[in-house]
Design goal:
The complex is a heterodimer of chains A (64) and B (250).
Chain A (H helix, E strand, L loop, with lengths): L5 H6 L4 H48 L1
Chain B lengths: L7 H4 L2 H33 L13 H28 L2 H33 L7 H22 L3 H15 L2 H11 L19 H33 L4 H8 L4
Classes of the chains: A mainly alpha (64), B mainly alpha (250).
Chain lengths: 64, 250
């Protein structure tokens, strides 16, 4: 192990702002991007299901 | 045809690729997490302090993998685009479209971490030097690709227009890669080169390679997930999507 204490680790030898600024934004992007894709999928599925249901309804009312 | 031969064109059909991609995504996520933990452990806890740059050098464990991925994703995107132009396969355009946002994010991360490294080491966030400027152009190429595709309503025409842009932009990739050799730049030379042995400690090198593998697996997973969305959206009038949506868990 390279560090003697947790505070030494977080201080990064005086480069804390630059190191954690890099790692933080990377972590944020890699967390948000999959969430956005998953959210998009959820919206898409419900929209497509609604469309199909609406088409089926229109078909049935035409038949009756 | 013998059974031993795999018909690769079969996988070019969204109806077969959609469930296959769905099965592959969790594996790539798992690999990405494993490589990420291993790489960050090596990079943040085991790798020694750099004798010139102190602890600030640890930014390269993200900066270099993100830069590699930004260039590599562009090449893969251009490859799919070319395949789409040549064979007119539906899947190719979808893959190119699915890769672009992740490529743009990697290019952004490369510039962002580069700026955060440049400030303490060079004393400036940004210089208009060859390496930095060509990487910025790469980010603009990704954004241009996304903007162009979303401006065209017909997906097949959007694919074609995007493919031409992607292929023209490929010329920028060797410019980025060799910029530190061709021009006098502030940016340091390649840390890892194919022709000579790397100029860095073995633990640092391993940490960087593991994080690069983590980013690679992440990119595959998120691009496959996005490609699945695009498939559903574009093929919503087809039988296979209808059958899929009728299932309880599509």
């Amino acid at each position: 192990m390279h560090w003697n204490s947790a505070s030494e680790f977080f201080a990064m030898g005086g480069y804390a702002f630059y190191v954690w600024g890099s790692f933080g934004v990377t972590a944020l992007i890699m967390a948000v991007e999959p969430i956005v894709v998953a959210q998009r999928r959820k919206n898409l599925l419900s929209r497509l299901k609604r469309q199909i249901a609406a088409e089926n309804l229109a078909q049935r009312s035409e038949e009756s | 045809m013998s059974n031993r031969l795999i018909n690769w064109f079969k996988f070019a059909s969204p109806a077969t690729f959609y469930p296959l991609a769905g099965k592959m995504i969790p594996w790539f996520v798992a690999l990405s997490v494993l490589f990420g933990i291993a790489g960050l452990y090596l990079g943040m806890f085991v790798a020694p302090t750099d004798f010139q740059q102190g602890e600030g050098y640890r930014i390269i464990f993200i900066h270099v993998p993100a830069s590699w991925m930004s260039m590599f994703i562009y090449l893969v995107m251009a490859f799919w685009a070319a395949l789409g132009l040549a064979f007119n396969t539906r899947l190719s355009g979808m893959m190119a479209t699915a890769l672009a946002p992740t490529g743009a994010l990697m290019a952004f991360l490369s510039l962002w971490t580069g700026a955060l490294w440049g400030k303490p080491m060079w004393g400036t966030w940004w210089v208009w030097d060859a390496r930095l400027t060509s990487e910025l152009i790469l980010l603009f190429l990704y954004i241009g690709f996304i903007a162009l595709q979303s401006a065209i309503d017909d997906p097949r025409r959007a694919d074609k227009a995007g493919a031409v842009l992607a292929l023209v932009g490929v010329v920028n990739i060797p410019i980025i890669y060799f910029s530190v050799k061709w021009w006098n730049t502030l940016h340091q030379g390649a840390s890892v080169s194919l022709t000579k042995s790397p100029s860095m400690a073995v633990t640092m090198l391993w940490a960087m390679l593991l994080v690069a593998l983590c980013f690679w697996m992440y990119t595959i997973a998120v691009a496959l997930a996005r490609a699945r969305n695009i498939m559903l959206e574009r093929e919503r009038h087809t039988e296979w999507v209808r059958a899929l949506l009728a299932q309880p868990k599509p």
